[in-house]
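Please study the protein below:
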Amino acid sequence: MYIVNITNTMNVVNNYSIYILKNYAKMDLNSRKALIMRLIYMPYNEKKKNYDIAYAKEKLKRIPLDVQKDKYDQIKEHAEKHNETVNGFIKRAIDRTIEEDNKNG
């Protein structure tokens, strides 16, 4: 159970809101984008971070993969052409190969 000091939390939120309202018009485009990203992804607290680390340790296994830079560029270009990340493409390629190998015996 968490005990939160609502008054203190609201003061922090209100002070930050006032700062944003006073300074937003003065900010350059990159500062505005950074501020918006911070507001969107802000509540990433220590508890969530620890959960993510514990989950990764328990459920995930990293597979190092070294490829020539030219090959990486080829993989990346192909993945982007199919609206995928490089990681997503590699996982799909692995799944497809395993499926084909299982069919062929």
About this structure: Residues 6-59 form one domain.
